[in-house]
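Let us walk through a complete example step by step. Step one is to write down the protein sequence. Step two is to encode the small molecule, adenosine-5'-triphosphate, as a SMILES string so that its atoms and bonds are unambiguous. Step three, shown after the inputs, is the structure prediction itself.
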Amino acid sequence: MTSPPADAPTPPPPTCEDLYDEARARPKSLRLLPSIIRDAVRLVRAAAPRELAISIVLKLISGAGLAVVFLMGKNLMATLLTDGQLPRTVDVLPKILAVAAVISGLGLIAAAGREVREILSETTARYARERIIDVAAAVELQAYETPSFHDRLARAATGQHRPIQLVDGLIGTLGAVAGVAGIVVALLAIQPWLVPVVAAASVPLIAGVLKAGQALFGFHLRMTAATRARNYLFELLTGKQSATEVRAFGLTDHLRTRHSDLYDAHMVELRRTARERFRLAVAGNLALAISLAGSIALLLHLALTGRIALADAATAGAALLVLAERIMMTVMSVGDIYESGLFVEDFTSFLAFGPAAIADRASGPAPRDFGRLVVDDVTFTYPAATAPALRNVSLEVGAGEVIALVGENGSGKTTLAKLLCRLYLPQSGQIRWDEADTATVDPDELRQNIAVIFQDFLHYALTARENIGFGSVVHVDDLEAVRAAARRSGAEPAISALPEGYRTILSPEFSGGRDLSIGQWQRVALARAFIRDAPLVILDEPTAALDPRAEHDLFASIRTLYAGRTVLLISHRYSTVRNADRIYVLRDGQIAEHGCHEELMARGGHYAELFTLQAAAYSDLDPTTD
Ligand SMILES: Nc1ncnc2c1ncn2[C@@H]1O[C@H](COP(=O)(O)OP(=O)(O)OP(=O)(O)O)[C@@H](O)[C@H]1O
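Step three: the predicted structure of the complex.
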């Protein structure tokens, strides 16, 4: 692939939106079925090739086994009834034993088939789940900002058992089709005109099951967003994180009613869909029944008027009835396959958005060292927003500098930090790490050079060691490195006081787990940034929950703590950023001004206004001021 010219605007990253629309718009005709079946078989084969092969072989053996039992039984009867004499035990016993052995062998095969099927199903579900994780990990963070991605993710997560259902249905259908074929051959020999009649009568039945499959799939498609909303409310009502606030504000009844209303709407729609599916089934079956009754009446008429032999009419009638039953079964199986196929198509088209699909995105190697980070005229708008969060932002961060980013709420500080980490790509402008445009380098490699702690850092319900070690996953088992990071961030005393120290799970949801105070959590998060050996450190509000002494200590020693590294600091505490080499002031997504503290104060602009405002609040509280 050719790389775009250096000055060309960065193309918008592909999101799941494109794929979503394409998948939805695609006609869900029966013609798609072979490719859907191929995809499903491929997926199951990739997940569990051995189990799939064994499962098919066992199914074939069972099918053939039934025929063998039938033939052996026929042979046994012949032996028993030979010349009207009682057979000798020695002649008959081996045959009885052989029939018994084959029957019990078939029983064993059926039992083995069930177990293999269970393993096949679970292995396929696991494989499908892992592919979903691949997609979730590969898509740009931007995809998470779109409801359609979450809809598709939710459907993929619930549809992971569909490929195996489809393959199951396929194996069953092959058997049913073989049964139909046998009777069709017999009918062709007796009354050939009956075959096209029955085939024509099956058309409404087939159309019905296809429409029924589409109706069910449509129902799931329509309800995905509402189902996610309902599941979210369920999480709120049952989750640990929400439990405190839901109780404190007495929200349980209100949320419960909303959950229940959404469920009511879901059930109304489900009943409507079920009625539609039932109507389609009635119409299809009625058409088949009418044509059957007509054919049998005609057979009877032909027999009574002497145009066909009575025996032929009776045989054809019986074959017709069996055929009708088989056709119904077959059509049902085909309907199930089609229905599963619609979900499989939805599922596999989602998987297509995984690592393979984004492999050809520009992704050169990330620079190893850090000299300079340049933000050049960057504009960025969130997918869900209409106005840009950042407009024509330009700034520069040099190696070894401590740079501060300040501004009022919503001015774009966190957004800029996320763009620097290449979590989002700008719609226009460039972010250059030394000479490399970060849009064109491998994002994972680039992020290895950055230690970032966001305001909403994660509280992992895992051990204290992991909570720190995740900052540099290669050090997760290195207790000494973890301890050293904890000492630097001041988290060490709180962790050492835990019942199992660094082995304690930081969540009371798990046995032996304990929680930390918010300030202690913040120190743990800071330790995560310390353990990561990255040249650029981005700290987004790192001291919001720290006590004044801890905050003072951190900022007083920031140059020593991060000696040799470059620090980008986002803070609302103006006193803490005054020692930065350069301060950038963001306002409504734009850089309003920049310079060192003294320069900005002398200028008397936005920074000076906010700094003075904050300082005044402190001096008002100061009992020594008059
Ligand atoms: N995921 C999102 N989708 C749409 N708009 C967003 C999203 N995240 C943030 N915004 C909007 O982008 C703008 C910048 O937000 P950002 O979080 O960068 O501000 P901030 O300066 O870090 O604010 P704070 O000081 O409150 O942390 C805001 O107007 C915000 O409402």
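Step four is interpretation. Residues 145, 382, 384-385, 389, 407, 409-415 surround adenosine-5'-triphosphate (CB under 6 Å).
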